[in-house]
């Protein structure tokens, strides 16, 4: 039964297959030639013999589906349509059966089929695939076409193949190069290499020479087609050349070069029509539609009455009319200069005092567009949208105004401003000068060895005495107090006390002065102790009859040149300084005892100046760099003041006693607040040369002055407030010039009037001056 | 060019030069200047001898043409301009200089119009024999005639003694002179001239002791024979010029002859007297004092304590104190205006109304000096005139009618400035009146402006035509 069925089957298959081939051809590739079909049939016929077992095997398969086979048998000659369907089904079966045994395809030449066992243990012929070789001479079709459709290739990632070709054959995944291959590939990049993988084939995508050229042309913005010339040469349809032998010798007609009258006529016609309004040259703008009555508008400033300034009241913005600044061509004085322009540009938007910069344009047509237009509109919209109801009040504080303000010198009057009187008479420099306690007389001493007394207002010399012929008078000072008139002066190493013949020296006062000066004679004579001890620093003596006749009362000598005399306020003690004297530099003298003491056995550095405290028993000694204050009653050092100057020239104690002003040869003036620190509270550098002297006004005016080698005096306002919390205010007021500089020396000394804001100065030019 | 015209209304404060019938507004050409207007007024007055006039319009003297004045002040030429005319102060011309040995401190003039002569009538004074006395820093009192000859000379310092400057000299009467100075003594001198008026003698008559410091100034009142003195010892002294009236001198102030060997041989032969009263109220040196011209019982004094004080002499009390801003050096009274002019270190002259009713201290300030004002004198011709001598080496003539108002009140400027003749030749500009400070000034109707200065000269300046040819 099996053989019978197989033969039957074989016939059927054979016939079926040849017929089905024809049908398929007629359906799928109808344009093939019949010769080709014949050839195929011949080839096919050869195969049929060898494939009989396969057919048998196939028959057994068909046996399983019994009904089907029956049907096939009954329909021996089916119609074309039916046959077609059957054939398709058969073919489907075949393809389905063969697909697992693909590996057997290679052995086609040897055997067309393979015999395997199926699940039931029966023999099974597995026929190898028949290669129809369709694509043998089809050049247009791609060599391999993946038929998986438009799906990502990644779906096949888990398979060894990447799809199927048109014949249902698996397209093998191309062999991936090993790492070495990849390296070699990367080293030798072939022309047209893209580094991409063709998704269709999975192979590296390489561009052909032709494609590369197309790309290059596209890159160059050229037409991609090869050989296309977008600018061909002009085709001269009409020749531009004047021919030597023209076809016609007729001269150019006049109408060629005369305006056409006809055209003029036509233009005029249009013009006339435009003038008469028959033609409108432009489209008339559409009539503005009346505003929509639905939108309500409110004019909040319609009935505005002037009201006082209040944050909740926003007055109508009444802009001032534009000025010259806003002009496109403003007068030059309105144009900002470079600095103003820069300041404006750098200023914050908020800080700009005006929101435009006056700019000059030669002509109105050169004015550029308004750059801020959009911004301004935007801000306006912002204003409306945010609806500010409170005006922003800007806190406009000038940082300068936060600084403590120095009062103007005008408000600090009175102070000396000009030279009122000159005192002429000294030969050589005037070294020192002093105004007497009543304020009417001026005593001065100079290089000519004389002490002179002048009437302060008029400048008339009223008294003069020559103390020394060779030595200069280095210092003159009045004894404080008006009960007696005693003037002390130092010439060379000698100190003199004298009673000048001035008008207020009434017999009464003269007697008193003599008494004060002479009180110590008895004491000195009785004091045997000091004499015997040989410790008496000096001997107070009568100055000799010549000087006695002039009014000099007492004289005593020290070891070195005396440069400074400083009186205690009560007129009982005075101190002298001779900077050269080592141990005897500072001496304190008691007038009523004619006693001289050397309180400082050892001083650090040469002594420069001394002062008594105005109210307390304190004594200040200035050495070259330091000022030391000593308590006289306890005999101890109180404080060391360090002005930081390299060489102190002079200092003065404020009448209040808590402040000190120090002048130095290194051009500095230093204000010390003794309560505050031992360091200067303020340093004033206003002079170009060394400062020689400094003095406070002693009569209640907040003034002090210094005298410098640059020939000028400077007046300062120096107010000391009683309140401890407030510091002294120091304002430079005035520079008084007038003294001439002689041999690098300018003003050597100065003094204040006891009441008035007047000061006197002693110049190296041999004059004294009164400044008021 | 069409010349514009303006109507002016002429007026004057002086009855003797007023127009007989008011002519009403007069139309004048605006190109007229002072001279033309002066001629016009003289024509209207029909005066035989033309008088120079000055014209005050709105408080300023006309110095330009009317046209320029109108332009400068922005006045329409259609208004009627009120023009006040006054006798012109003739520019004081330099007349003479009297040379001295030392700085001259003070001067006084004796003429028929001077206060000293007018008090006694003309009996004691021979017209035409004007005398000038000068007090000098060398302590010498000199009497000059107008031919710059010294008629008499007297020294206040004792021989060999210290030289004490004379700060102030005054004619008490044609035969009496009062001097004071740095020797703290007021001296009365008898002055007698010989018949030819060529030489004269000065004999000390009286020495008044009582001050303890420089006596800066004396003021004399001849009818009551009272003397006022201002001293740097902060006091004002009242003295009698008659030895019989005066109390004895305070002994402690007399120079002691015992102590000094030198002066033992010459005891003072002159009577020494003390003060009638010493007025103490000032707190600093008193620099000048005057009698009120109309009332010799009232005195003014100025001091370095910045105040002007009014004194009642019979009771010796300080009636009123007016404080200014600076040291005061000189004062003069302007009785017609009830003002007192004071000058000092503020470099200006301040007019003060000393009456109780006055509200402000300063009625007017006269500005222009560059140095301290040392002395003041009033114009003998006019109640509005002043002259001031200053440390800047000038005398300035002021007319208080000419004034402007600025923020500090009424301010006047000087009409004329008299330079020192000694400083004129110098090409180098003196610095602030160096060496030519004017210490004393006196203005006499006959003699003119006499000023004493640091340049050791007394300088006389006089407006031309005043002497002998003065109208009225």
Automatic annotation (TrEMBL), chain A:
Task: Indicate, by first and last residue, each region the UniProt record lists as having compositional bias (Acidic residues).
Answer: 47-79, 100-109
Which regions are flagged for Pro residues bias?
A: 317-334
Tell me the keywords, alphabetical order: Nucleus, Repeat, Ribosome biogenesis, rRNA processing, WD repeat
Segments of this protein annotated with the region Disordered: 1-109, 306-360
- Where is the protein situated, by its record's location annotation? Nucleus, Nucleolus; Nucleus, Nucleoplasm
The opening ranks of the lineage are:
Eukaryota, Fungi, Dikarya, Ascomycota, Pezizomycotina
Output compositional bias ranges, type Basic and acidic residues: 80-99, 335-345
- Identify the coding gene: ERB1
Q: Which organism is it from?
A: Stereocaulon virgatum
Residues in BOP1 N-terminal domain copies: 156-416
Q: Where are the WD repeats?
A: 423-464, 747-772
Q: What protein is this chain from?
A: Ribosome biogenesis protein ERB1
UniProtKB/TrEMBL annotation, chain B:
Q: Where is the signal peptide, in residue numbers?
A: none
Q: Which UniProt keywords apply?
A: Nucleus, Repeat, Ribosome biogenesis, rRNA processing, WD repeat
Major localization class: nucleus
Q: Where in the cell is it found?
A: Nucleus, Nucleolus; Nucleus, Nucleoplasm
Q: Cite the PROSITE patterns for this sequence.
A: WD_REPEATS_1 (PS00678), WD_REPEATS_2 (PS50082), WD_REPEATS_REGION (PS50294)
The domain of life for this entry's organism is Eukaryota
Keyword Transit peptide (UniProt): no
WD repeat windows: 124-148, 208-240, 279-321, 366-408
Query: Residues annotated as region Disordered?
Result: 243-274
Annotated SMART domains: WD40 (SM00320)
Stretches assigned to the NLE domain? 6-70
Gene3D superfamilies per record: YVTN repeat-like/Quinoprotein amine dehydrogenase
Please name the InterPro entries in this protein's record. NLE (IPR012972), WD40/YVTN_repeat-like_dom_sf (IPR015943), WD40_PAC1 (IPR020472), WD40_repeat_CS (IPR019775), WD40_repeat_dom_sf (IPR036322), WD40_rpt (IPR001680), WDR12/Ytm1 (IPR028599)
**Its biological purpose:** Component of the NOP7 complex, which is required for maturation of the 25S and 5.8S ribosomal RNAs and formation of the 60S ribosome.
Family, per the entry?
Answer: Belongs to the WD repeat WDR12/YTM1 family.
Assembly and partners are described as: Component of the NOP7 complex, composed of ERB1, NOP7 and YTM1. Within the NOP7 complex ERB1 appears to interact directly with NOP7 and YTM1. The NOP7 complex also associates with the 66S pre-ribosome.
Name the PANTHER family on file. Answer: RIBOSOME BIOGENESIS PROTEIN WDR12 (PTHR19855:SF11), WD40 REPEAT PROTEIN 12, 37 (PTHR19855)
Report what the protein is called.
Ribosome biogenesis protein YTM1
């Amino acid at each position: 039964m099996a053989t019978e069925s197989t033969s039957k089957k074989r016939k059927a298959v054979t016939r079926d297959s040849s017929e089905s081939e024809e049908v398929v051809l007629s359906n799928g590739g109808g344009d093939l030639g019949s010769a080709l079909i014949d050839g195929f049939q011949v080839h096919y016929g050869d195969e049929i013999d060898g494939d009989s077992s396969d057919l048998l095997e196939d028959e057994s398969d068909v046996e399983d589906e019994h009904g089907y086979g029956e049907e096939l048998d009954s329909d021996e000659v089916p119609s074309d349509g039916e046959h077609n369907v059957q054939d398709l089904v058969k073919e489907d079966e075949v393809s389905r059966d063969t697909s697992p045994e693909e590996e057997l395809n290679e052995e086609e030449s040897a055997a067309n089929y393979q015999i395997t066992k199926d699940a039931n243990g029966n023999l099974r012929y597995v026929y190898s695939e028949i290669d129809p070789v369709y694509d043998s001479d089809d050049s247009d079709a791609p060599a391999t076409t993946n038929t998986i459709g438009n799906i990502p290739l990644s779906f096949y990632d888990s398979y060894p193949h990447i799809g199927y070709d048109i014949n249902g054959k698996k397209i093998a995944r191309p062999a991936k190069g090993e790492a070495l291959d990849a390296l070699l590939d990367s080293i030798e990049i072939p022309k047209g290499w893209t580094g991409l993988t063709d998704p269709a084939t999975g192979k590296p995508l390489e561009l052909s020479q032709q494609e590369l050229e197309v790309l290059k042309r596209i890159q160059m913005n050229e037409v991609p087609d090869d050989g296309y010339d977008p600018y061909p040469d002009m085709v001269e349809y009409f020749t531009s050349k004047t021919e030597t032998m023209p076809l016609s010798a007729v001269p150019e007609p006049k109408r060629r070069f005369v305006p056409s009258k006809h055209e003029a006529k036509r233009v005029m016609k249009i013009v006339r029509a435009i003038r008469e309004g028959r033609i409108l040259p432009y489209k008339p703008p559409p009539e503005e539609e009346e505003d929509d009555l639905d939108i309500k508008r409110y004019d909040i400033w319609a009935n505005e009455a002037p009201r006082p300034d209040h944050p909740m009241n926003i007055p109508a913005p009444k802009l001032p009319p534009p000025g010259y600044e806003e002009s496109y061509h403003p007068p030059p004085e309105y144009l900002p200069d470079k600095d103003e322009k820069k300041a404006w540009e750098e200023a914050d938007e908020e800080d700009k005092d005006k929101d435009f910069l006056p700019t000059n344009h030669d002509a109105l047509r050169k004015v550029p567009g308004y750059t801020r237009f959009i911004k301004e509109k935007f801000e306006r919209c912002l204003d409306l949208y945010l609806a500010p109801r409170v005006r922003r009040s800007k806190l406009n504080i000038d940082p300068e105004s936060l600084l403590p303000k120095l009062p103007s010198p005008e408000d600090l009057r009175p102070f000396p401003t000009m030279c009122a009187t000159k005192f002429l008479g000294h030969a050589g420099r005037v070294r020192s000068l002093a105004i007497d306690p009543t304020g009417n007389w001026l005593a001065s001493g100079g290089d000519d060895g004389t002490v002179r007394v002048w009437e302060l207002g008029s400048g008339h010399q009223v008294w003069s005495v020559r103390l020394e012929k060779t030595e200069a008078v280095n210092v003159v000072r009045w004894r404080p107090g008006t009960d007696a008139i005693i003037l002390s002066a130092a010439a060379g190493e000698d100190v003199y006390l004298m009673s000048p013949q001035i008008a207020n020296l009434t017999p009464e006062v003269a007697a008193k002065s003599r008494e004060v000066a002479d009180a110590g004679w008895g004491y000195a004579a009785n004091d045997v102790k000091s004499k015997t001890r040989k410790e008496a620093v000096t001997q107070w003596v009568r100055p000799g009859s010549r000087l006695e006749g002039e009014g000099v009362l007492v004289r005593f000598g020290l070891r070195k040149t005396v440069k400074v005399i400083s009186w205690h306020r009560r007129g009982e003690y005075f101190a002298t300084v001779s900077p050269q004297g080592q141990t005897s530099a500072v001496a304190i003298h008691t007038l009523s005892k004619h006693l001289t003491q050397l309180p400082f056995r050892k001083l650090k550095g040469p002594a420069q100046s001394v002062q008594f405290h105005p109210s307390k028993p304190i004594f200040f000694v200035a050495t070259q760099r330091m000022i030391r204050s000593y308590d006289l009653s306890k005999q101890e050092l109180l404080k060391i003041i360090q002005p930081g100057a390299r060489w102190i020239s002079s200092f003065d104690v404020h009448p209040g006693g808590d402040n000190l002003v120090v002048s130095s040869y290194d051009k500095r003036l230093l204000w010390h607040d003794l309560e505050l620190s031992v360091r200067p509270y303020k340093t004033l550098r206003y002079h170009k040369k060394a400062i020689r002297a400094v003095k406070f006004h002693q009569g209640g005016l907040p003034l002090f002055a210094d005298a410098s080698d640059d020939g000028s005096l400077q007046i300062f306002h120096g107010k000391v407030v009683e309140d401890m919390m407030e510091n002294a205010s120091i304002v430079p007021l005035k520079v008084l010039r007038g003294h001439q500089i002689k041999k690098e020396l300018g003003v050597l000394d100065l003094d204040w009037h006891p009441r008035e804001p007047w000061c006197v100065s002693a110049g190296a030019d041999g004059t004294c001056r009164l400044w008021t | 060019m069409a010349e514009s015209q303006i109507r002016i209304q002429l007026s004057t404060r002086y009855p003797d030069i007023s127009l007989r019938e008011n002519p009403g507004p007069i139309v004048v050409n605006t190109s007229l200047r002072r001279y033309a207007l002066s001629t016009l007024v003289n024509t209207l007055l029909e005066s035989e001898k033309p008088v120079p006039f000055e014209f005050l319009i709105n408080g300023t003297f006309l110095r330009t043409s009317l046209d320029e004045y109108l332009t400068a002040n922005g006045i329409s030429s259609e208004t009627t301009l009120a023009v006040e005319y006054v006798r012109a102060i003739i520019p004081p011309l330099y007349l003479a200089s009297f040379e001295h040995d030392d700085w001259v401190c003070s001067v006084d003039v004796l003429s028929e119009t001077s206060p000293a002569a007018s008090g006694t009538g003309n009996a004691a004074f021979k017209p035409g024999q004007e005398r000038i006395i000068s007090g000098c820093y060398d302590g010498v009192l000199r009497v000059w005639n107008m031919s710059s000859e010294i008629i008499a000379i007297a020294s206040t310092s004792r021989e060999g003694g210290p030289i004490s400057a004379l700060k102030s000299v005054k004619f008490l009467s044609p035969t009496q002179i009062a001097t004071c100075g740095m020797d703290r003594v007021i001296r009365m001198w008898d002055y007698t001239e010989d018949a030819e008026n060529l030489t004269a003698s000065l004999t000390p008559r009286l020495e008044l002791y009582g001050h303890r410091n420089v006596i800066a100034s004396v003021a004399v009142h001849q009818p009551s024979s009272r003397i006022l003195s201002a001293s740097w010892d902060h006091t004002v002294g009242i003295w009698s010029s008659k030895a019989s009236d005066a109390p004895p001198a305070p002994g402690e102030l007399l120079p002691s002859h015992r102590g000094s060997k030198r002066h033992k041989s010459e005891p003072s032969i002159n009577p020494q007297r003390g003060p009638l009263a010493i007025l103490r109220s000032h707190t600093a040196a008193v620099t000048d004092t005057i009698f009120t011209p109309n009332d010799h019982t009232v005195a003014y004094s100025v001091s370095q304590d910045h105040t002007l004080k009014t004194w009642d002499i019979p009771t010796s009390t300080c009636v009123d104190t007016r404080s200014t801003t600076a040291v005061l050096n000189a004062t003069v009274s302007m009785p017609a205006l009830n003002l007192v002019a004071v000058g000092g270190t503020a470099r200006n002259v301040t007019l003060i109304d000393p009456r109780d009713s006055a509200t402000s201290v300063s009625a007017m300030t006269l500005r222009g000096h560059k140095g301290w004002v040392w002395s003041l004198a009033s114009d003998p011709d006019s109640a509005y005139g002043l002259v001031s001598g200053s440390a800047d080496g000038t005398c300035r003539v002021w007319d208080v009618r000419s004034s402007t108002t600025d923020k500090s009140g009424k301010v006047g400027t000087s009409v004329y400035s008299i330079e020192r003749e000694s400083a004129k030749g110098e090409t180098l500009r003196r610095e602030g009146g160096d060496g030519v400070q004017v210490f004393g000034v006196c203005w006499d109707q006959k003699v003119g402006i006499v000023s004493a200065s640091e340049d050791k000269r007394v300088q006389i300046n006089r407006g031309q035509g005043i002497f002998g040819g003065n109208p009225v």
